[in-house]
Design brief:
- About 25% of the residues are buried.
- The longest helix has about 55 residues.
- With about 220 residues, this protein is of the alpha+beta class.
- Helix 3 packs antiparallel against helix 4.
- Strand 3 and strand 4 form a beta hairpin.
- It has a four-stranded antiparallel β-sheet.
- It has six helices and four strands.
């Protein structure tokens, strides 16, 4: 009598061992390990592991429940990790894109300013006329037409505002500036002495008003 429970247990263990291992359980474990580093793809081993668990239960046709559970666990950890990474990555990506656009805008304003100064040096220190400055600089192959389009052009057709006039070489004389609506932190401005800087909106408005009043 005392040997019957042991015999039953041995028979049950043999039945378990004789069952084939679930391929889904194995796949879940392997993919779970890989997807710890593969972000959203961790959803795959999570799903495979759940299905694998249903196949490897006590009455299931296959063995490998431990593998399936491990796959689900690793998939869950990978998925949570990817969500955390995305939360960090997206703001960093947005910041990098903003910095790249800012650098491009600075470069384009500097290019337009320098070519206008070169033109003035060859034309009695007078910048190209306001009504045709873009066409003149393009026709004389001083700029590429794409330089006239800001990376933040918002569909209103306004990228850079050009003032023209006489070159005084004054560090406070505004020659060209980007549409003030583009940057909440300030306005990218090109000055007659050749330098370009980001000026806060209040200061820029004051400088522009003073320059227009003196013209």
């Amino acid at each position: 009598m005392s040997d019957q429970p042991h015999s039953a247990q041995r028979g049950f263990a043999n039945d378990i061992e004789s069952r084939p291992t679930s391929g889904l359980a194995v796949s879940s474990l392997v993919l779970g390990i890989l997807c710890l580093c593969l972000g959203p793809l961790a959803l795959v081993p999570l799903i495979l592991g759940i299905v694998g668990i249903t196949q490897t239960g006590t009455n299931g046709p296959r063995k490998g429940m431990g593998l399936a559970i491990a796959g689900v666990s690793l998939g869950g950890v990978g998925l949570l990790g990817s969500c955390f990474s995305i939360g960090i990555f997206l703001p960093a990506l947005a910041s990098a894109k903003q910095q790249a656009n800012s650098l491009k805008s600075h470069t384009q304003v500097r290019t337009l300013l320098q070519e206008a100064i070169i033109y003035a040096g060859e034309n009695a220190e007078m910048y190209p006329p306001v009504e045709s400055w873009e066409q003149i600089l393009i026709e004389q192959r001083m700029i590429d037409p794409l330089t006239l389009i800001s990376p933040l052009e918002d569909g209103d057709g306004v990228s850079y505002i050009y003032l023209g006039g006489e070159n005084t070489f004054n560090a406070d004389q505004i020659v060209i500036y980007e549409d003030p609506k583009h940057w909440p932190s300030g306005v990218i401005v090109g000055f007659a002495d050749g330098h370009v800087e980001l000026v806060d909106h209040v200061t820029f408005e004051q400088m522009l008003a003073e320059q227009q009043a003196s013209d």
